Amino acid sequence: MLERFGYKNLVxxxxxxxxxxxxxxxTIINVALPTLAEEFDVDVTAMDWTVLSFTIALAVMTAxxxxxxxxxxxxxxxxxxxxxxxxxxxxxxxxxxxxxLVVGRAxxxxxxxxxxxVGSALLFNAFPIEERSVASRKVITVAVIAPALGPIVGGGxxxxxxxxxxxxxxxxxxxxxxxxxxxxxxxxxxxELTHFDTSGFLLLxxxxxxxxxxxxxxxxxxxxxxxxxxxxxxxxxxxxxxxxVELRKRQPLLQLRLLSERNFRWYNIVSLPVxxxxxxxxxxxxxxxxxxxxxxxxxVGLALFPQPLGVLVTSQLVGRFFYKRFGPRRLMLTGAATxxxxxxxxxxIDTGVDLWWVxxxxxxxxxxMGLFFVPIQSAVYARTAKPLMGQATAIYxxxxxIAPALGxxxxxxxLANGIAGSTSLAERVNGYxxxxxxxxxxxxxAGLLALRLRDSDAAATMAP
Length: 464
Prior knowledge:
mainly alpha
C-alpha cells in the first residue's frame, strides 16, 4: 500500500508532520506569555526573551543546516533535529525558572533550525523538478494552517490544563513524525568528511544574533540608543566579515557562492520585501485594532483569520493549474500589485472600521500572498543541483528568518516616529496609518524586483 502511495508522497507526509509541529509551536506560545510571566513572577516584557532566544538560535542553525545535512546525511540530520525538538520541548515544559525556559527555548530553536532546511532538501530531492509546484502546494497548506491554529490550540490548553502542555503537546506529534521518518525515509550517504567551519559559525552566530536583537528591539528602545546602535553595527560588521571569510574558504559553512547563480540569487532578493511586508502588517494591525480600536483579542483574531484562508485558496490553484500555465514571474507581479492595493486600503482604516471590511481585506491579501509563496518555493531551487540542495535551503532559510525581523523593524520605527509626542487619538491613528503604508510599499519594492526574474530560468519546474 505504501509503495503505491509513492516515496515522494511519503517524504512529503513526514516533512509536513514535522513542519506543522514546528510552525504551530512558534505561535502557540504567544497566547501563553502573560500566563508564563505570572508563573515566573516577572514583568511580561521579560518574556520576550523566550521568543528572541528561539528566533536567534533558529536563524543561526538554519544557516548552518547545509553543513549538518552534508556531513551527517539528510535523513540522519533530519531525525536528529526531530528528536532534539521533542527532547527540548520536554525541557521547556519542565522549566522551573525563566532562565531555564529561555535556555530551553534556545535549544528548541536550534533543533527547529535544522528541521525546515534539511526537510526542504529531502522534499525537493524526492520530487521531480517538474513537480516542484505540487510539492510547494503541499507545504504551503500546512504553513498556512499551523500558525492560524496555534493561538486557538494554545488558548484551549490554557483553559483546560497547565501551561506546561504548551510544550508537552509537541512530544506525541514529534514522536509520530520521528517514527514516520525512521520507517519511510531512504538512507542517503553523508558527504565527504569536512571539518566544521568554527570561525564561520562564530561569525554567523554573533552577526545574526546581534543584528536580529537590534532589529527586534530597536523600535522599542529607540534606534539612537547606544545598545541598539552597537548591536546593529557590530552585527553587520561581523556579517560582512563572514562574507569575506566564507568566500575565501574551500569548504565554508555557508556556501555563498551559490548566490552567483542568477535565479537563486534573485529569488532570495525578492523574498526579502515579500516576507518583510507580509509579517509587518500582521504585527501592526492587531496593535492598532486593540490599542486604538479597543477591540478584544478574540475579535482581532477572527478579523485576521480570513488571510490564511485566502492563501490556502490561491496556493491550491497556483500549485495545481496556474504555475505551469503562467510561470512564476507573472504570478508574483500580480501578487505584488494586489498586495500593494490591499495595503493602501488597509492604511486608510480608522478606529471605527467595520471588522467585516477588515476580514475582506485580509482574505484578498491572503489571495495575493498565495501568488508569491508557491512560485518562490517552486522556482528558487530550479537550477540547484541535488548535492547542493542542503546548502541552498540553508541560505534561503536564512533569508526567510531575516526578512520578518527587517519588516517589523521598519514598521515599528515608522510607527514610533509617527506616534511620538502625539496628544490626540487622531494623531496616533495617523501614525499607525503611516506605518501600514510603509508596509504596503514593501510590496511595491517586491514588484519592481520581480521584474528581474525570468521564467526561462525556472522552465524546468514548469514542464508538463
